[in-house]
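yo, DNA-protecting protein DprA is done. seq:
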Amino acid sequence: MNDDSLYHELALTLLPGIGPQLTRQLMSYGGSAKAVLTMPAGRLRRIPGVGDATIKILTGAEREKAFRKAEADMRKAEKENVEILFYTNKRFPSRLKLIPDAPAILYYQGTADLNAPKTVALVGTRKATEYGREQTERIVKGLVPHQPLVVSGLAYGIDIMAHRAALQEGLETVGVMATGLDIIYPAVHRKTAEKMREQGGLLTEFAFGTPPDRYNFPSRNRIIAGLSDGTVVVEAAIKGGALITAELALSYDRDVLAVPGNLGSTASEGCNALIKSNKAALYAEPLDLEQLLNWDAALHQSGKFKPVPTYSADDFTVEEFALITVLAAATGREMQMDELAWKAQLAIHAVASLLLSLEFRGVVRALPGKKFGLI
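structure:
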């Protein structure tokens, strides 16, 4: 990915009113961000979902403002060692690509692999109790043999406890932020955030300078849920961000576990309700998480873990790896070509040739009914 491509991709995402879904729609017709941003009004008007208001944004003063902001942000990113990942980048988290409301761009500062073989989110109330702290630390200790990437939201309470416990146990941990990377919120967590840059990372979809506006937090929660194989709710009130994250994880077909608490404890009402309604599995010991996420299948008889075979993004084109990612997430289920195209966000005519190429390389097998699966 050259600087010119990233410059136009970043500018496209900085335009007001051009959200992630419209960005993908424009890219599917234009082929590149540069083509979209230089496309004449007549061609833009033929793209479904694009009207006069959108055309004005893509061709007028807002575009020039986005270009200036993109140039400044790229300079800042280079200075502060921040990686800017457009959704077509091979290093963009493959798990996030599978959710329908995935962000179009991410800003990342850290050392952890966002496509780690195992990832788990720990979330909970900001008003955590001593019981919540103990359970968080116990859960993280139980994760150590698996060496997963621990994901949370850098917030007060369970979130920051999860990050600190992971750092203490030598696990990489990523904090998903509701601000720009240059604004640590809450500010009292700055020291922990600095450690996370060296043992994990900080991740956001928000541009530099974005303050902690209230409506940013639900958006942040969807990235936590989408980035993780499973979400563990440690303590949660009957309403709040942790329950939103759990519901989002369920909507993405990801597993959810909850730690039960005392009846009558407001800090555990949300967890108990998730378990009672069968929306979450009960977490009592590490085995509960291992079995639900199928992590126990990786055990040797010696008790040590062997790595799960994975395909490397470096060995494939962006489009090929998008198909592999979708098929891998299907956990053995074969998929039809139109479903593959939709989930990989690729044109169906392109998917046919890509699948043929992958079949020749011994990665994909074709089955009756135009179904495909990984070998």
